[in-house]
Specification:
With 269 residues, the protein is of the alpha/beta class. Helices cover 29% and strands 14% of the residues. It is built from 8 helices and 10 strands. It has a 6-stranded mixed β-sheet, sandwiched between helices. It has a two-stranded antiparallel ribbon with strand order 1-7. The chain has a two-stranded antiparallel ribbon with strand order 6-10. Strand 8 and strand 9 form a beta hairpin. The longest helix is centred in the N-terminal third of the chain and has 16 residues. InterPro entries: Nucleotide-diphossugar_trans (IPR029044).
Length: 269
């Protein structure tokens, strides 16, 4: 790896089936920046926007991992939790393969940017942690090694969990004689929580970029995406690069005139 080299490659994953409207719009916004965009899939995805390169996700991570991520205690999460946690592993193994910076499919992009090939790139969330929606590691990062070791274990319980998930939750399950799997210990145990804990462990937590780059409207304010409030600053101010749309319910409804979402539909839908 050349020290000082920069990259522009973006990548994401969609397991299979049709993309939602919000994902199609956001992927199109990534393409519009002029940055190369790759979408890894594990099945047929018929409505991928033009300009997105589609590749087989198995080249990054074998889909067989899904079978090891099935919750046992929280049976109501069986239909979706394995895929969510699989994607957390996937974005890390994407870095091992040198596949470029990970963006969730629901990140709306405003402008192109470059990132250093030999440095981490992640962004601080409003709670002070590290977001999982925007994520890059150099291929030789020790954080990747943590996941490689974990996936080779019979038990997928990581050693980076905080006290509540590492000690208290398993204790409750055992006291109540409830069967459980590692996936039952927490939705974000391989994602946001892992990135926060491992970034601290390996001394790169302080390199997180400011929240405004991708999480300016977070938590309840994320709904402003769909309201007629000022949004032109996202395109005008260089501090804002993209926005994670984590509250997506309104994306399926008719847009409010004057909203950022209406503008996004006009540009990219």
């Amino acid at each position: 790896m050349t020290v000082g080299a920069t990259k522009t490659q973006l990548a994401s994953m969609w397991f299979d089936g049709p993309l939602r409207l919000v994902d199609r719009v956001c992927l199109s916004s990534m393409v519009a920046t002029g940055m190369p965009v790759t979408l890894y899939t594990f099945g047929d995805v018929a409505n991928v926007p033009a300009g997105v390169t589609v590749k087989d996700g198995n080249a990054i991570l074998d889909r067989a991992l899904l079978e090891r991520l099935v919750p046992v205690a929280k049976k109501d999460q069986v239909s979706w939790l394995p895929t969510v946690q699989f994607s957390d592993f996937f974005r890390v193994f994407l870095q091992k393969a040198g596949g470029g910076l990970w963006l969730d499919t629901d990140v709306l992009m405003f402008k192109p940017f470059e990132y250093a090939a030999d440095k981490v790139y992640f962004v601080r969330e409003s709670n002070g942690g590290i977001g999982a929606s925007v994520f890059y590691l150099p291929p030789d990062s020790p954080i990747i090694d943590e996941y490689v070791r974990l996936i080779m274990q019979d038990d997928l319980t990581p050693d980076w969990l905080e006290f509540k998930r590492r000690v208290l939750r398993p204790m409750v399950y055992r006291l109540t004689r409830t069967a459980f799997s590692p996936s039952d210990l927490g939705i974000t145990m391989y994602g946001n929580e892992a990135f926060r804990q491992l970034a601290r462990r390996h001394g790169v937590f302080g390199q997180a970029h400011p929240q405004d780059r991708f999480y300016h409207w977070s938590d309840a304010r994320n709904e402003d995406v769909f309201k007629p409030v000022p949004w032109a600053f996202f395109y005008d101010d260089p501090d804002y690069i993209g926005l994670h749309i984590h509250k997506k319910t309104e994306a399926a409804h008719a847009p409010e005139p004057g909203s950022l979402w209406q503008d996004a539909l006009e540009r990219y839908a």
